[in-house]
Amino acid sequence: MRNPTFQVTRRQAIRGLLATGAFGLTVKLSGCSTSPTAAGGSDTLTAGFVYVGPKDDYGYNQAHAEGRASLDAIEGVKTSEEASVPETNAVQETMRSMIDIDGATAIFATSFGYFDPHVLALAKDFPEVQFFHCGGMYQEGVHPENVGSYFGYIDEAQYVAGVVAAHASNSKRLGFIAAKPIPQVLRNVNSFTLGARSIDPSITTQVIFTGDWADPVREAEAANSMADQGIDVLTCHVDSPKVVIETAERRGIFATGYHANQAELAPQGYLTGAEWDWSNVYKNYVSLMQEGKTLMNGGIPHLVRGGFKDGFLKLSPFGPAVSASAQQAAEAAQAQLVSGELVIYKGEIKDNKGKTVIAGGKELGQTAVELEQMNWLAEGVMGSVG
Amino acid sequence: MATEALGLWGVPLAIIAGTLRGSVPFLFVSLGECLTEKSGKINLGLEGTLLMGAMSAYAVSYLTGSPWLGVITAGIAGMFLGLIHGWLSQQPRVNDVAVGIAMIIFGSGLAFFLGKPFIQPSAPQLPTLSLAGWTQIPQLESALSISPLFILGVAIAPLMQWFFRSSRWGLLVRAVGDSPDAAKAMGISIFKVRMASIVAGSFLAGIGGASLSLFYPGSWSERISSGQGLMAVALVIFARWNPVQCLYASLLFGGAQAIGPAMQSVGIDAYYYLFNASPYILTLLIMVITCSPKRTLTGAPGSLGQAQE
Questions:
Q1: What is d(CA B69, CA B67) in angstroms, rounded to the nearest whole number?
Q2: Residue range B46-97, pLDDT digits in tens
């Protein structure tokens, strides 16, 4: 009998090594010959986009992919993209090949978990490449200067969605299916509720945490349970709202969307939705870079933030169930957010245990640090963060 | 009549509804695995088969407009994966658990790759049967609209029980699983019987996948199964390789999935991570309770998981 352990003869080993070497060589050579060199000053700008999930998921990644697609029309810009890249070493390999093979000089890492350690490691290896991370983890002075961060205050759009939801609801009970109790999510829940209660202070929002960014079965269970409880407008903060919106439509209740436009999934019950508009952000970055500005020479700010006013957000077109008065109220709220008249977090605001979290007369603007550390649910939200 | 809140009654209702809706994939995968394991082979790859079934059912339903064609395609796609597993795992000195893990990765990878264009479109769903003609309460109507696949699964369970106990072919499967040497002496081809069992089991698992994408939650995405295929494999051990007990166990697991969200929807929000984890905790508990170093499990096929010489 042959020895059952796995053995490789010397000849096989040499053959394998030769093949690997030849493969590596061809990849390297063809990469150099087809793409412009990174620092060569050629007039084409190459940008690489990395997404954590599929780019047509009706959600977070689709919003980014749509933003990327808006760059196609701009002359002198080439983009490459890769979807479903996990937040592991895999993303480092993806970014490395975008730089080495496609000649990318700017990388847009769109998922929260890409930052530490992956973007940081690559930023050290490629000091001439600019890395832009979507999320709020960049710290001045701590992180390399070729790293920047961008993000939007999407809770403004959630506030307006809450205004629309309040008009549509008969039972005065809204439902929010959330992934995890982290500050960004809680801020959306609270803004949605505050928006709804600005129309009718008796409205409550039931929140269900599924515990996972994508768990279709649990999202469907949550949506069904809420419909059973008489809740008649649903919204969510999960990676792909598809299942929630579809389930709401099947149960004959209203829904407002998140991340991207889901109107096609619920032609009857879709009211509006809080959408990202990354195309403005990406176009702006690209035009700055085409002018020769970089993060390193100080031409591009390291932190880029914005709301409705800066074109980071948009609302889905209103659905057929939205009344004229609801539309007016929503447009008014949006206009006030743009002009700065309306501050969402303006005291006095109590949490749902009766404790005052923002004192009377105090205003927390969108840039306030307190809002980035939110760990409470506003009065009117049924649920708990713990 | 406006929809009225059910209050605390919502919890048992959600569990019942979850049982009827969410148990179908567990049921089909566990029945398929039961058949496979009775012949003496383990097929862990049913997680991949489930995903492949979900993807192909959704894709075909979308492209042809016929969900039933999708269900059949899902079964055939499952058989295709079963053929690979059946052939590979029966090679000399090959461990079927290792092949199964490879098949999870292969099946899910293939499903993700082929399924890319089908994440966005909405495919026609399977029709549902309503058992709620007698009630005016909309929540009950919704809970009691069940999938024809559920009824099919419930019918297959006792049928498979009868097949093992009373039919000649069932005896062949059991013989091959309990004592391959004896079966060989009888002149039975172990390879063919095991191959047939694995392929038929994978067919059922594929249909389980179709219920995920065409009934509940009714959409194709890469996270659609979230480990249900693997849980269903563990469930077969819990059910002691008995198809009717597979049915009960599947109902239990389907209901357990609904506990977390249902509790939160009525305002019981303490420990929701614990409630959300209830299917997994259940799996662990079952493994702890049923395992013992002193004896082998009753009902376990004699040659289960042993490599062929």
A1: 5
A2: 999 999 999 999 999 999 999 999 999 999 999 999 999 999 999 998 999 9
Question: Any bridge partners for residue A258, and if so which?
Answer: A274
Per the DSSP assignment, residues forming a β-bridge with A45 are: A77
Domain with CATH 3.40.50.2300 in chain A: 43-152+278-306, 155-275+316-382
Domain boundaries, chain B: 24-121+145-232
Contacts of A43-46 with C-beta under 8 Å, sequence gap 24+, read: A43/A76, A44/A76, A44/A77, A44/A78, A45/A76, A45/A77, A45/A78, A45/A105, A45/A106, A45/A286, A45/A289, A45/A290, A46/A77, A46/A78, A46/A79, A46/A80, A46/A102, A46/A103, A46/A104, A46/A105, A46/A106
ipTM of the shown complex: 0.88
What is the per-residue pLDDT across A269-326, written as a single tens digit (0 to 9) for each?
999 999 999 999 999 999 999 999 999 988 999 999 999 999 999 999 999 999 999 9
Residue type for position A221 = E
pLDDT given for residue B180 in this prediction: 92
Chain A partners within 8 Å of B222 (Cβ): 53-54, 84, 214
The model's pLDDT over A45-81, given as tens digits with 9 standing for 90+, comes to 999 999 998 888 899 999 999 999 999 999 999 999 9
Contact B6 A230 (CB under 8 A): yes
A226 CB within 8 Å of a chain B CB: yes
- Distance of residue A211 Cα from the nearest chain B Cα, in angstroms: 7
Instruction: Check CB contact of A81 with chain B, cutoff 8 Å.
Output: no
CB within 8 Å of A200: residues ≥ 6 apart: A166, A172
pLDDT at B36: 96
Write down the residue that tokens 């939650």 correspond to. Answer: B217
Residues 19-58 of chain A with CB under 8 A from chain B are 53-54, 56-58
By three-state DSSP, how is residue A19 classified? helix
Best mutation target among B264, B266, B273, B308 (most A Cβ atoms within 10 Å) is B264
Q: Which pLDDT value is given to residue A23?
A: 60
Q: Which helix (H) or strand (E) holds A173?
A: strand A173-178
Residues of B in contact with A208 (CB under 8 A): 261, 264-265
CATH topology of domain A155-275+316-382: Rossmann fold (3.40.50)
Which of B223, B228, B261 comes nearest A208 by C-beta? B261
A residues 156-195 lying closer than 8 A (beta carbon) to B: 170-171, 173, 175
Residues of A in contact with B6 (CB under 8 A): 228-230
Chain A residues touching residue B219 (CB < 8 angstroms): 216, 242-243, 246
Overall CATH class of domain A43-152+278-306: alpha beta
Closest CA of chain B from A238, distance in Å: 12
Residue (of A183, A249, A170, A177) closest to A213 by Cα position: A177
Cβ <8 Å between B264 and A240: no
| pLDDT (mean) for B251-268 | 86
Give residue B215's identity as a one-letter amino acid code. F
Pinpoint the alpha helices (H) of chain A: 10-34, 60-69, 89-100, 120-125, 155-168, 183-197, 216-228, 242-250, 278-290, 324-339, 369-372
